[in-house]
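Students often ask what a 'structure token' actually looks like in practice. Rather than answer in the abstract, let us consider Violaxanthin de-epoxidase-related, a protein of 539 residues. Its sequence is given first.
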Amino acid sequence: MYQSLEAPSSLLKPRTGSSLKHRTATPRARLVSFPRYQSTSRIGFPMLLSTFGTVSSTHAISETTECAVTERPERPVRIVALVGEGTVSPLNCASWQEVMLHTADRLKWVDDGYEMLVFTDDLCWSSGETAADVQRELNSADILVIVAVTNQESVKWIQTNSGRIPNIICFDSSQVLTNKLGGMNIHRKTDGMLFGKLIGTSELRKESEALEVVKTVSDAWDRHNSDDIRFCLLIIINAYIRPVPILKNLRAKGFSTLNCMVRNCGTEILNCLLDPNCRKALECLNKCSPVDQVCNYRCIASYESQNLEAFSLCVLQKHNCLQLDAKIPEKPYVPPMVKFRGKELCHETAEDLFVGWLGSLNWSWRVVAGQNPAYDQFPCQYQLFYRGKARGTFWYEPVFRVKTLDGRLVWRRRKYRVKRGKVPGTFNFSVLDNGVVSNEFWTIVDVSDDFSWGLFHYSGAARVAGQSYTGAVLVSPDGAYPNEVESRRLVSALEKCGIKEWELFNVDNFSCADPPLGIPEGSKLHSLIDVKDLSWASV
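Now compare that with the structural description of the same chain:
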């Protein structure tokens, strides 16, 4: 497994080049250290990616120089994607053309200035104006992405017409094609690694930085999900074209972080070092890629302890030693459902939709599938929504199963406070999870009249963790996928979220015996809707 104590500097500091020529820069010194934190998906599990041995060592702090950049209006970042005609991706058998077209839309959520055009490779060598159009786009491209291209005519055409492009990345394509980063050619090894040994340069530092970028991009691509495919492109943009703001939180703030931790959290640090589970958790996290959220959470689930929670609470939540400030994403905007059973949706009815089957069953909903890969690899997900004893209070408790690193299956449960949004069908969630607060904005996108399924969208941020995220969950009373009759309505609901059905990860809902369910005594359920009266329901 690839190990890294900090996000590679090449991923976080753009190189000076033609794309930066309209900026003014003033050198300044910056101290860089290893402590780093990352949260996963909507559950908000904290990921502290360092060992205290690294934090406490003065040798872990090195001085680098970067530029303070004054932003001016910039031209768009132009990306061209060439995909093999008729090729199929590993994302639930969606075509690569569809996957990359969707990626182009999702790049706009990050920055409207990211423009990606997608062509199939058969257009390159076709007759007429089409090939000329593709060539014109290549002449102004900052990045060329080649996916699943093996046709020899296409390969020759690409070799002839891509010489001016400074950044070329090839995935699942002919070994003859050459990759390029920052104008430097890169060979691929024959062992299957995406990129390999650099050629054509003796500058070891540039070689090292490029290989760091290469490794991060390769690992992300191999996770085969839409979030990481977009992340691959953002890494290249950030490293070789211009800064990507949402990636700035991958690096800690150096000496100020260390000073903050020692000054404010000495007791918590010592307790963590003396606790075998807490120490193992930090060591385990340090072996994970900073963007591999599944790996990160398995470390937390395997070695979770009160001392680890206290450590995170002090270093991150109370004192924000990493000086991070992530925001809840504003895009995509997802409208809530407007009517339920022909009547205008009100706040009380919207809460009843969340409460769902609780009362008739021991849970509100079971998760069928979700879009966020960091969360939806966990089996046996139950949702509990209920009204609290105090007037106006509403709560959400997810219950789910985790397979630990030593092979144990353990149940986990979290508790969110839920408040109504301004518009019926929207809600604000907050949770203190392993010492860190996550705030989320949820939308009820759709719920069928018979409560046979529902779709909930969320966007959130763990502010002091520097992590923002979006996603959606498809739910049903028994964890089974909606029937074919509901297919068109489900696809329409997913489209409102900017999600394709092939992006969803199915939840393993087998072997779910004895979940720790139940709600506090005195809690209240439905206000206007009684699910038990639904005689036509299938459960």
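One point worth highlighting: The two ends are 45 Å apart (CA to CA). Ask yourself how you might have guessed this from the sequence alone, and why that guess would often be unreliable.
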